[in-house]
Amino acid sequence: MSSLPKRIIRETERLISDPVPGITATPHEENLRYFDVLLDGPSGSPYENGVFKLELFLPDDYPMAPPMVRFLTKIYHPNIDRLGRICLDVLKNNWSPALQIRTILLSIQALLSSPNPDDPLANEVADEWKNNHDKAIQTAREWTAQYAK
Amino acid sequence: MNFNSNINEVSDPSDWDNCKLPSLSNLDSLLRCQICKDFLNAPVLTNCGHVFCSICIRRTISNSNKCPLCLEETYESSLRKVLILDNIVKWFNNNRNDLLKNLSIDLVNDSQNDSSSDISVISELNGNGNVNVNGNEGKKEKEEVQDNLVECPICGVFMTPDEIQGKHIDQCLKNPNGSTNRNTKRTTSRSFFKNSSSSDESTTPKNTKKRQINIQLQPNSIKKKQRIPNLDTSISTNKLKEKLNYYKLPINGKRNELEQRMKEFINLYNANLDSINPVSDISLISKLKKWESLINNNIHSQNNNNIHSDTNSNNSSANSSPPITFDEETIRRHQNEHKSWNKKNKNHYEDLIKIARMNMQKQKNKQLINNEDNNNNNKHHIDDDELSDIDTELIT
């Protein structure tokens, strides 16, 4: 492991000493840039009561480059594809070094509350979301009950 | 919060949470750069009114011309240094530990605490007789004193008018710091800091001097220096080497390494001009070396270390061919530094991980209780076993 910037140590410490409600992020023992994340589905969304597993990796040029985040738990969401990749502006173009792990995970939680089918990553899900909204919500709920626990 | 004390090198606004004045954590976080989360170093102001470390924002801007806080367009040419803030941050940083120490809630009750600090002040004063208690300590104290004493206009010590007009004023004019001090028993805010920092050799003797000199003034040598203009990446490799040579930088490596090196040096150099106490060009070059060996190190470990595999990069960086730039010795030294850092903080990391795992387990347990039917895959079970092991370890 090459050196770990102070900023990452500080963030890790903060994440653990003062965790965000509904979010836990644990660094791997072998690689402190790699985090296991557990994220509670936001209440009032079809993902309520689900606990989603994600992986998060801080690249070497972090914080100049955004962290890489991916869902490991299967999820039915127009902006998250089969492989768990997430379509979220702050993870790509709108990344700023002033953001941090904590804010990114909160953004992802917010994305679960308000999906954006007009900028889809999973096209079929997005179509369903727009054309047959009730059924899409139903499927999301079923997937949550089945996989996210 | 006890594990905060384990890493002294890494300070955090939350350090104030358990002191007598927890709101200081707000000040603490306001004085930090939003990019590196460390205290502002040579702060600069953007057009949109945000402040960052000069080097942080310069590195950011060489990636993309956006302010990290508001995403407004920001250009290097519009950055302006804020010297007073540099002063403020330096003061805060220098006095942070003392403040924390003095504001910590300890088991000794307050009155006892006060009297003990009084005694130590007195003994300190008796010890070296010439501690200079200046008079501008705040009105309250002055009022108390004004009944029968007046302040010496030179050294600020309170004494009777007769004394000042007699011997003292002559003495004081000759040697302002060597005046004898009568009014010593009062614990003033200044002696409070003096007392607390007396163990710190570097701050005490210079205190008065520093206070007068360095406010918002950069050394003259820095004023003559011109900023290096941004690198024109279309110049020929030879020209680039010439340029590197001009600043006494190494000229080995591939074209893009040369470019990177030049860019980083320009950032370091220009950021240094924004600092209230800038460093010499030579230490800039050594900073650059450190930066470059870090980058090289990272490139090597990156090759062996992608997001979905858990390869142990410790081995990979040791086995990889030596980086192309800079002498091997420096690089080895840096690697050793990294290793010793990791070694030193291993326990701390482990503690952090344990605590996080415990939190995870709590969450999992909650889940398990909620959902009776078990649909977990094998990996989950393994995790659970590991976790319960750790749990029992902690309990015993």
TrEMBL record, chain A:
Signal peptide: none annotated. Keywords: ATP-binding, Nucleotide-binding, Transferase, Ubl conjugation pathway. PROSITE patterns: UBC_1, UBC_2. CDD domains: UBCc_UBE2N. Residues 3-149 form the UBC core domain. The keyword ATP-binding applies. One of its GO terms (molecular function) is ATP binding. It is an enzyme of class 2 (transferase). The active site is at C87 (glycyl thioester intermediate). The keyword Methyltransferase does not apply. Its EC number is 2.3.2.23. SUPFAM superfamilies: UBC-like (SSF54495). Belongs to the ubiquitin-conjugating enzyme family. This is E2 ubiquitin-conjugating enzyme. It comes from Pichia kluyveri. The lineage of its organism: Eukaryota, Fungi, Dikarya, Ascomycota, Saccharomycotina.
TrEMBL record, chain B:
Residues 384-396 have a biased composition (Acidic residues). It comes from the Eukaryota. It is found in: Nucleus. Keywords: DNA damage, DNA repair, DNA-binding, Metal-binding, Nucleus, Transferase, Ubl conjugation pathway, Zinc, Zinc-finger. Pathway: Protein modification; protein ubiquitination. Residues 189-204, 302-321 have a biased composition (Low complexity). Residues 33-70 form the RING-type domain. GO terms for molecular function: single-stranded DNA binding; ubiquitin protein ligase activity; zinc ion binding. Its EC number is 2.3.2.27. One of its GO terms (biological process) is DNA repair. GO terms for cellular component: nucleus; Rad6-Rad18 complex. InterPro entries: Rad18, Rad18_UBZ4, SAP_dom, Znf_RING, Znf_RING/FYVE/PHD, Znf_RING_CS. Residues 172-211, 302-325, 370-396 are annotated as: Disordered. It catalyses: S-ubiquitinyl-[E2 ubiquitin-conjugating enzyme]-L-cysteine + [acceptor protein]-L-lysine = [E2 ubiquitin-conjugating enzyme]-L-cysteine + N(6)-ubiquitinyl-[acceptor protein]-L-lysine. Residues 232-266 form the SAP domain. It is an enzyme of class 2 (transferase). Residues 149-177 form the UBZ4-type domain. SUPFAM superfamilies: RING/U-box (SSF57850). Belongs to the RAD18 family. This is Postreplication repair E3 ubiquitin-protein ligase RAD18. It comes from Pichia kluyveri. The lineage of its organism: Eukaryota, Fungi, Dikarya, Ascomycota, Saccharomycotina.
